[in-house]
Amino acid sequence: MQPLEFLKFTPRNNCGECGYPACLAFAAAVTKGGEQPDKCPYVDVSALGDEFATTDHGQDGMEGVEKLLDGKDVALVAYLKEKTSGIDFSQAAEKIGCEWSGAEKDCLLLQYLGRDVELCHKTVTISEQDVEDPRDQILLYNYVSFGGGDAPKREWVGMESLPNSISKVRTLRVYCEERLASFFTDKTELMKTHAAELGAVLDESPEQSCSAAFFISVLPRLPMYVLFWDEEKEDNFPAKVKVLFDEKVMDYLDIESLVFACERMAERWVELAA
Ligand code: SF4
Q1: N or C end: fewer C-beta atoms under 10 angstroms in the chain?
Q2: Class of the 3-59 domain?
Q3: Distance (Å, rounded) from C-alpha 274 to C-alpha 270?
Q4: pTM of the predicted model, to two decimals?
Q5: CATH 1.10.15.40 region(s) of the chain?
Q6: pLDDT the model gives residue 23
Q7: Pocket test for ligand 1, best of 12, 36, 39, 40 (most atoms within 8 A of CB)
Q8: Per CATH, the architecture of 156-273 is what?
Q9: What pLDDT sits at residue 69?
Q10: 42 has a pLDDT exceeding 90
Q11: Measured from the CB, is residue 40 less than 6 Å from ligand 1?
């Protein structure tokens, strides 16, 4: 059985109860990595049939799954490059807040978490290094292929207010907000010190009574507002982070790439401060 066939037995709501961030990842783990199908409480295992029971579902565990998912990511990068091959970069640049390198190179020049990106039709570099992780390429080519929309107004909304985001709220919390909150507990000044390296600007007078708040343009037209409350030991409140988005953010990126952008922001902030 292939992952997409098994996927039909799940409710496809990406709730994460199985321990995987999405139903497709779980389907890959079951069909290629030997994961037990009953880890999803919504799968009717008896409906899978004899063929499922007698098929070898791989013995590589998560390694096999990761190879499979990497293969899918690489295929998606190829698809997005093909999709963007017809875009006139000289016309598209302004709408997505980039510069155009000129006809000779025909690339888009932009900032991604404070680093210089050169995105061409076939190649992309960050800080003059080839981008190895296909997920960064997916994010960057997706941003270009969306083609922009209304300029961000900095009217902030939470992930839960964005369409089709129910399953992503948890992913954002685990891979971005809790990661930042945990690392920067009792380290507000350290967080401020390294914010500028991400291209973030401290909000000197935040409306909410937080320990620190930052405006961060993860990509040129992808501003985020990050609020940090440090722990309050006396009241037993742990540190907390909340990431807010411009209400027009879906004009610029799909929800998967948006959550990945947040994950990268957290990773990079922690790396810089570690
Ligand atoms: S438990 Fe896993 S496979 Fe089942 S619906 Fe939730 S995310 Fe999908």
Answers
A1: C
A2: mainly alpha
A3: 6
A4: 0.72
A5: 3-59
A6: 77
A7: 40
A8: 2-Layer Sandwich (3.30)
A9: 59
A10: yes
A11: yes
